[in-house]
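Lecture 7 notes: from sequence to structure.
We start with the chain below.
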Amino acid sequence: MLQLFVPLALAVLLAAPVAAQTSFIAFESGPVRPLALSPDGTRLFAVNIPDNRLEIFAVSGGALSPLESVPVGMEPVAVAALSNSEVWVVNHLSDSVSVVDVASSPARVVRTLLVDDEPRDIVFAGTSQTGGTHAFITTARRGQHRTHSSIAGVPGAGDPLLTTAGVPRAEVWVFDTNDLDQGAPDPTLGGVPERILTLFGDTPRALATDGSTVYVGVLNSGNRTTTVSEGAVCDGFGTTACAGDGITSP
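Predicted structure tokens for the same chain:
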């Protein structure tokens, strides 16, 4: 009996179906500037949004090969290369910017800058007073850092006036890449911007620049207007019920 049982048990085990893998659903913020090429064209930087990382690839002969994976903030949605050795990553959920030294081995985050709520994009443009360049970062006009004492003297900082009507809700934070603390003797965790620009609108997103002028794309304009196709407006507007749904237009 024992001789028959062992092969039979083994046959049953081998015949058992392999358990199906559980499906995986990833929730992630929408990428805005997910790729950046180093100025010398030898490396490609890509944000790994669900894994909160900056992926670094070597570029050679039209092919890519992975080099490093650097942990950054949560939900990185934009990346820009300041130089061949320094890359800035915008973290949408962490409300921060990771400054990554990609020349060190291994590459690592050397500074974290705090900004307002839900930052989305970054570009470098112009020449700062220290000989560096300006970093422009889009955010919404809300968040705990704009009222922090370390940036109390920054133009545009302070109370977000969340319940005050008529206050523009789109912001652009501007940093001097050569002076992230604006001369403060003790560098702060969050850094000190040169200024915070406020624009009429809500949820600013993409940035573009020709090197001297920076353009800001606002996702929600905030002026309570929209474009409606003429075909969507029923005859007798405001006086009779529409044929489609029977509802009288306001």
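Points to note: Residues 4-10 have pLDDT under 50 and may be disordered. The chain has one helix and 14 strands.
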